[in-house]
Amino acid sequence: MSGTVTAVSSNGEYSFTKPNRDGITLLAGLGVEGDVHAGVTVKHRSRVAQDPTQPNLRQVHLIHEELFAEVGAEGFTVVPGDLGENITTRGIDLLGLPVGTLLRIGDDAVLEVTGLRNPCLQIDNFQKGLLKQVVGRDEAGNTVRKAGIMSIVKEGGTVRPGDTVTAELPTGPHRPLDRV
């Protein structure tokens, strides 16, 4: 299973969106160099308020570009970096990957998938009604989160648009993604 990086984004300050870059550097065990969410322990404000010593399972946020077309069909305009992701991909089913999947990106970088992004109300501040598009319910009433996946950096490296993303599934029984 593989796809392509279509955009990379980072921001050294807390803001909802992240500007696109020509490339980002992933640092093993930390996240995106210079990004406000990089670190060994949690950096997302709501998580820090709960327990600042929690491990940072949300070092790198990935979103599938196909989501932008999906919400676009409902009248929303979203482009790479708008939802705060670090890496935008095309052609790989990020939401269908199990916990522990390794994503090999470009020549050197390796991410380990930790779970689903749990989007917050800030999405509605960005565009009213967008939260309902990225968090919904299936026919059985289960919550469905579509705002991307979270990961940790296992091996550092530079990531640029055009890089290949290859998924390496874990051995043994696969655990489906849950919010982190």
UniProtKB/TrEMBL annotation:
Location of the MOSC domain: 19-168
InterPro entries hit by this protein: MoCF_Sase_C (IPR005302), MOSC_domain (IPR052716), Pyrv_Knase-like_insert_dom_sf (IPR011037)
PROSITE patterns assigned: MOSC
Region (Disordered): 161-180
Name the UniProt record assigns to this protein: MOSC domain-containing protein
Organism for this UniProt entry: Streptomyces mordarskii
Record lineage: Bacteria, Bacillati, Actinomycetota, Actinomycetes, Kitasatosporales
